[in-house]
Amino acid sequence: MIQKKPVMSKTKSSESVKVVVRCRPLNRKEESNGPAGGIVQMDLRLGQVILRNPRASASEPQKTFTFDAVYDANSKQRDLYDESVRPLIDSVLAGFNGTIFAYGQTGTGKTYTMQGAWLDPEKRGVIPNAFDHIFTHISRSQSDKQYLVRASYLEIYLEEVRDLLDPNHGNARALELRENPESGVYVRDLTSCVCKSIKEIEEVMNVGNQARAVGATDMNEHSSRSHALFLITVECSQPGPDGRKHIRVGRLNLVDLAGSERQAKTGVQGERLKEAAKINLSLSALGNVISALADGRSSHVPYRDSKLTRLLQDSLGGNAKTVMVATLGPAPQHYDETLTTLRYANRAKNIQNQPRVNEDPKDALLREFQLEIARLRAQLNHRKWRSKQKKEQVDGGWEGDGDEETEGEEGEEEVEKEAEEYVKLQEQQLEREKQDIREDQFMLADEKQRLLGEKERMMGDLRKEQEATEQLTAKYKAMESKLLVGGKNITDHTNEQQKMLEMKRHEIAEQTRREREIQQQMLVQDDETVELRETFTSLQQEVEAKTKKLKKYLKLYAKLQCIKAEIQDVNDEHVRSRQELEQTQNELTRELKFKYLIIENFIPPEEKNKIMNRLTFDPEEDQWKFQPLVPAESKSSQMKKRPSSAVGYKRPISQYARVAIAMGAHSRYRAENIMFLELDMTPPNTATLDCSTKSERNQIPSLDNSPTKDSGVCKSRSWCQTPKSITSSSSNVSLAACHTATPMTAQ
Ligand code: ADP
Ligand code: MG
User: What is the model's pTM?
Assistant: First the structure.
């Protein structure tokens, strides 16, 4: 009790992550494996887990860990909720950020703890209980409070964030993470659904669960590799002492993590290797973050190493209250995994968070909703008042007495009624007038038509006006229905007696929690106090005191042995994980070398450079990205502009070809923009080159076919210069020559 005070004052600014441990019962298969029984023992009163090593001798001390609470195989879902989760949800409803995450090996009950069996009230997990809690709280709160509840559901699979509420979840692209100084890290474009009741939010959960199941061929395989995050935002507006409405925003993250067991990484290649490297990336990053935070000395916390740690940044060492539920299996064959989970959980206890109430944040959606509702209401009221005033004018005109005294005092309903009456009266009057016009025998047909048309138009206007008002009303009502008013929208069916029972249960849970805290504190104190009394009145007393002391030293010695063994264990584990990391690194290096080999040998350097030049690093996303080929903004302008060489022609054309066209060239190649060139074989001196020409002729068969063969040599000419000499047999060879010649000529 005396110790309580400093703890309380400490919780104001910072509080540690609450860690609870739950052990599931042995399942049938494990029971049939042998009589060994479970290796996990729990002391519920002290919140301790005692782990027995099935391979060690009986004399070896067992490992003991102390947590905020422990739940054994007989524990009920309700116990865990009332004792460990309820206070957190209450905080979220008061405007704090809250996170609950379940951590443990696959098959130890993470999903059972978080979701449970929905249909059995005894087995409903944390999430459905939290839904009940939130909406019951709203229904029981005072009517001056307004609430807006939103839910989102996402999963992180292979380091990609996927929206589970997106209708085409299967094909949807991965979402990006963004950071905002006010609300921290968030997921861009994540669907969020406004929920007005337990039923609606359960529906959201079901939709997400189905998307998760459809995406995965083997659900168990999938769930042991993906993290599921269900996010609930509760915004509450309440008039403050200054008369203004203040908004508090509580964000709740309900996280079902992937299985923590080590995935085998050996012998896998390609896609599977990439997958294996990513599977535990988030989890090992989470481990590193927890270690860095628990250590307290490291200045750098590697939040940016994975999507999960970025999303949980506030929950680990930031502005949030966090509860971690570590789940264990009691089977002896999973001793190593169980020990790892317990160590992980033990480390997480040391993380300090700095939770604070999120008061009046700029991005509160509730504020936007309130403003929009107020705007719509003002518009609607304005319309109705206008109609009402018109009616009064009409009434005044007919009955001759303007009755003004009810102005401003009338209730909204009366205004609405009067507005409706006005529309009805107006319609009737227009109908009467139309009838009069039709029956008037002295009026000309044209005049009648014109007046009738006018009345028709007035009638149309009136209807349009009415329709607009109706639309506005519908919009207003839809907006307003999204907000929950304390004690109004949701009917609470529990009677007084049940409420009392619930309250008592919560009190008992609170009491148990406090008792456990005190017990733990006493245990710590007992260990630390040194025997101060050194003067003894009798020999007997001295013996007693020294025996006590001796016992204490023995206890301390045992503890020392435990700690030594622990250090050895932790060292072994580090070595093991380092070896694994090295192995992964080696395999990734091999893969990288292989890729390099492909690039060096099969991709032309200029292509490689082109690709390299397009790469840019996105620090926000922490990855390399391709820039688009054409910058987006200049794309349209580039497309529109025609190169000057193409003006007046179908396509860009060389100077030489233009001249050729102007000279009336052969039409066959005009479209191709091809020039016809023959080799310039003019010898510098015809007389001395007689024999060499002969050998050249043999080497170049085209010359043999050339129509100018008989002239011996000819000058280089374009096809347009020799239109008459071109034959079909020569065109192939000449074309080949032209391809290389054209650009040069164009210069
Ligand atoms: P995880 O999500 O950790 O992989 P599950 O929640 O799917 O594990 O649990 C595996 C199995 O164990 C399920 O059939 C579940 O019903 C059962 N189970 C888990 N925890 C408990 C518990 N505390 N009490 C009874 N059954 C449990
Ligand atoms: Mg699961």
Answer: 0.71
